[in-house]
Write a structure and sequence with these properties.
Largest sheet: 5 strands, antiparallel
Distance between the termini: 61 Å
Strand order of the largest sheet: 1-2-3-5-4
Order of helices and strands: HEEEEEHHHHEEEEHHHEEE
Number of helices: 8
Shape: globular
Radius of gyration: 21 Å
């Protein structure tokens, strides 16, 4: 298969090592920018006058939709796994080529939607089956934090947008006003935290939230399960006339089917929230401090050794 000019140009940007976006085709009915992120990953942005539909692709492609200061809408596609560079570049090339002959922007956007639909079978999120008990505890804890922590100081829709863990990012939450947050939900007898990668705590001033979440039954006062938490988030979004698209996208990426009896029959009770400040002296393995070639690191932290970094503990039930 021969390379098009778009792919050749993009490979040049990737090899050049300079971050930034470049308008590829000035006569195209859509403004299509290609280039790289600060970390060197391929990124494409489609800029339009009208609000586009946000497609769901794969957990290796981060899709973002936002309105810029000029009032234009942007669909941003960032590849999260560099093993798929060639697939991603050819997807972008297909988007450009098949929408280029459209008579106007709405027609071009329709064709872009068709392209994504046809590629969906290759890039669609793959359900993982039932979550394990610990994965379910973690998801329940994150939704509880969205409702009881992050949505207290911002709209629920914004709290959902900042929920990045299901989108494949190392940290669970990020908000412009207060930075990164990593959430760990643990049982009452747990004495250590599992850190899943060298990137997870590799942010200074990150807030580590440890939520104690006990398993219980549906008769316990304050008990909650996954479907009821999702219903509360949906209700909060509906009250603000906000879309549940972001919530649905994250549940889909996690492979969650709320009709599963396991999720309906498993109940939890959040009891205590502890907050730790992660800074230069916090015990951690950080990607920025590792020698080249070392990756996919997992390790454990003993909670007793983190006491000096604790900034607050709150009983929540």
């Amino acid at each position: 298969m021969s390379d098009t000019q778009l792919i050749t140009s993009w490979r040049g940007y990737l090899a050049g090592g300079t971050a930034g976006l470049h308008l590829y085709d000035s006569v195209h009915p859509l403004q299509i920018f290609i280039g790289t992120t600060d970390a060197g990953a391929p990124r494409m942005v489609v800029r339009t006058q009208t609000k586009p539909v946000k497609p769901i692709l794969s957990n290796v492609v981060l899709v973002e939709r936002y309105e810029d200061k000029s009032g234009k809408w942007n669909l941003s596609f960032t590849l999260q796994d560099r093993k798929f560079d060639e697939v991603f570049l050819r997807l972008a090339d297909d988007v450009h080529a098949r929408s280029s002959s459209a008579a106007n922007e709405p027609m071009a956007l329709d064709r872009v939607g068709v392209v994504f639909d046809e590629w969906r079978r290759l890039l669609k999120p793959r359900p993982k089956g039932l979550l394990t008990m610990e994965e379910l505890r973690g998801l329940v804890g994150e939704l509880w934090l969205i409702l009881n922590e992050f949505a207290a100081s911002r709209p629920t829709s914004a709290a959902i947008e900042g929920w990045l863990g299901p989108m494949g990012l190392p940290q669970d939450f990020w908000y412009a006003s207060d930075g990164f947050h990593e959430a760990k939900s643990i049982g009452p007898s747990t004495s250590r935290l599992r850190i899943s990668s060298e990137h997870q705590l590799d942010e200074n001033d990150l807030q580590l939230i440890v939520l104690q979440v006990a398993t219980t039954d549906d008769q316990t006062v304050g008990a909650t399960n996954l479907p009821s938490l999702v219903a509360k988030v949906r209700s909060s979004l509906a009250e603000a006339a906000a879309s549940a698209e972001g919530l649905d996208e994250r549940l889909l990426r996690l492979g969650v089917d709320l009709s599963e009896s396991f999720y309906q029959d498993t109940w939890f009770l959040p009891t205590r929230k502890s907050i730790y400040k992660v800074g230069p002296d916090f015990p951690r393995i950080a990607a920025s401090a590792l020698s080249g070639g070392i990756s996919r690191v997992t390790y454990q932290l003993e909670l007793v050794d983190l006491e000096e970094f604790k900034v607050a503990t709150v009983e929540v039930s």
